[in-house]
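Lecture 7 notes. Example A: sequence first, then its structure tokens.
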Amino acid sequence: MTTTENRPGSDVIDWSAAPPPTDETGWLQRAREVRRILERDAAARDRAGATPYDEVALLKESGLVTLLGPVEHGGGGQEWPTAYRVIREVAAGDGSIGQLLGYHLLWFWAARLVGTPDQIEAVEADATRNRWFFGGAVNPRDADLTIREDGDDIVYSGHKSFSTGSKVSDVTVLEGVLDGSGDPGTHVFAIVPSEQEGITFHDDWDNIGQRLTESGSVTIDDVRVPWTSAAGFVDRAFQPRIYNTLNVPTIQLVFVSFYLGIARGALETGAEYTRGTTRPWLHGGQQRAVDEPYQLDLYGDYQSKLWAVEALADAVAQEALEIHRDAWNVTAQQRGAHEVRVAAVKARATEVALEITSGIFEGLGARATAAQLGFDRFWRNVRTHTLHDPVAYKRREVGAHLLRDELPEPTWYS
């Protein structure tokens, strides 16, 4: 959808007429309103694959982009347990938009993970007041961007295969390695405006799922940043903390959130279709599909499994809350033990989401394979993103901790 008249949320809800929510209950209700708008035409928008400018505008108008922002600057003042549940709600309506929101919230928060106190305050104030939407060009499987010093500036150059958010972002997070800093090198994060001559988004995201995430490749050509904006650096020297390494467990829980949201969307959309459209088997002796014993078993099994993983995800998010609240004093033991729990829920969320989104067709019937209905999008979305990093390595982290009392070493994926 590209016109104002057809934009999701157009002439539906005027959020500006009401004060923003002040607690988790209110923000979850706001997220459900966004979900209902998105899910009305999610299948059609998935087929069209258009750049989701209007969908991101909807996230801004609803206030969800500033969910984690300081209240004094107009933000929601919420914490990660609420954010993860909000991402799940949005992803239930549209998996792509749930991923965009999740990545945005991670990059919005990244100043707290890496930055100095002054940088954190400045970034969050500007991002909240201006409702910036964040993208990121930080794919660790590619060669790092190179950074050269030029007076009081650092200058980024290079290419990344993936840059989620790309054209719909207001700002992009860059990460690279400083020339001459050896191996593994000095890594530097910075936030830059997305619309500038030095950044070229290549519009080459053409995957089977998560089609509206704008995750194509990007070329960075002499993008200049003041040294004072290098995240976590003081007088050109990085200020390390254990908390600097919490970006990976946090983004992994973002992944869990939109996997579970997509699974929830498949289950509830499927149940609605089964109640209203699916016919009973002609030799089964039932008058309604909802009375078929195999339907009751299927939906009961999937609901039970989803509830279980959602509960685990909520518990792990709550465990992380104390780590986030005591960011300056996190220990390696705390960080490692938390990552093991994150690995466990990531593994279970992956398996359950794939099972539900592929198996739900058993409850729908042959007519539900019509392309117009787009029931396949749920599986395509989960299958695409769950290949981000091998889930076997997540299970291995859990096993190594249980059998050998080992904690995962912080990496770009653990």
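Example B, a different protein, same format:
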Amino acid sequence: MTPQLQQAIRLLQLSTLDLQQEIQEALESNPMLERQEEGEDFDNSDPLADGAESAPATPNNEESYQDTSYQESSAPTVDNLEEGEWNERIPNELPVDTAWEDIYQTSASSLPSNDDDEWDFTTRTSAGESLQSHMLWQLNLAPMSDKDRLIAVTLIDCINDQGYLEETLEEVLDAFDPELDIELDEVEAVLHRIQQFEPAGIGARDLRECLLLQLRQLPAKTRWLSEAQRLAGDYLDLLGNRDYSQLMRRMKLKEDELRQVIELIQSLNPRPGSQIEASEPEYVVPDVIVRKHNDRWLVELNQEAMPRLRVNPQYAGFVRRADSSADNTFMRNQLQEARWFIKSLQSRNETLMKVASQIVEHQRGFLDYGDEAMKPLVLHDIAEAVGMHESTISRVTTQKFMHTPRGIYELKYFFSSHVSTSEGGECSSTAIRAIIKKLVAAENAKKPLSDSKIAGLLEAQGIQVARRTVAKYRESLGIAPSSERKRLM
């Protein structure tokens, strides 16, 4: 592959946020590139032509939208120099199977991004607070002897991300040096102090202890508190098995009273450690915007996420001298790199627009009526429609997002396998999942639908799905089996 093709493929795989960072690095490293500021005149020209042939100007407002079709003017463009400015023609191609850095050592990817003047260590290396660091912060505020503090640090290291103590107290005790003369009672006493830390329920050894710890921190006037403590302490297995008749009999409660006790239990967090997130939030910027206008679905690239670039004509003018000096060679290389970078961006936007338009054309039913109207779609269908390879479609649909009136979706969301119908047609797996979710939402809570029953209801609608397939779709939706969905009204 030529370096140009390698760069185009790499840019095609980048998400919008990664692409913006790549563009910013290119702008900082290449003086030939500049960003088109809002309100400035812009000459849309062919970025690879040595002449001054001008392309049509970019349309504004409503004309910038296309009815599920590709819009070439949405891509970044570059101002070109007048014909005759070049005494030496810059090559349009580089040798095959060479790396970009072999020819141009000044590309953004080869330059360090941590400039001493602008490097922000906190911004680039900070992460969310971990559960252990949150607990150690509380430990530093607690008055404690040196021995107890050592025990507390060891116990905190044994707490997993869900907030549970993974090791037994005996195993924790064995980890200490015998010369410290630490006893099991001391380890247990320190654990009880840690269990008073936030979040409530931290440091529990099992679910029963976790729920009881959280119930003990509730106000004493909380309704049904004593009954909830009794249920969590003695009858948690019956609750897990949804054996409500046994619970009502053993706890001597009526159905409505038991329901309120269970609601109090369900308000607790069985995984208290999950409240402390160590990972940074991930933001999604849509690449494509879809909206309906005059009963037509219109598709356009997100211009705010696609900055318009061009070659700086002032710097480009410095290359007019036909000399072989180091400075002139450097500027010539920078100019060629800028032109190829812009061409790669154009190629990315062209491909993205073509693919998004074909997806919208194929999934109009989803945009109008929702998941139940989703049609079967595979990569081969789009690849055939746009005349590209399936691997290219896979790259352009990964980490690329479409903003629709129904929400923001990754382009891969619109692809799904199909199931045959009794009428000889096809139904997408996404539509079947939506139907299953709708059936479960409308089921009788006391008698939830089994997988076999759901398969029968789907068959009544002409969708031929096996029970095992229903179970697979149900699990992918995060819906529990019927035995676990049973609950009191």
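Note on Example B: The radius of gyration is 32 Å. The first helix runs from residue 3 to 13.
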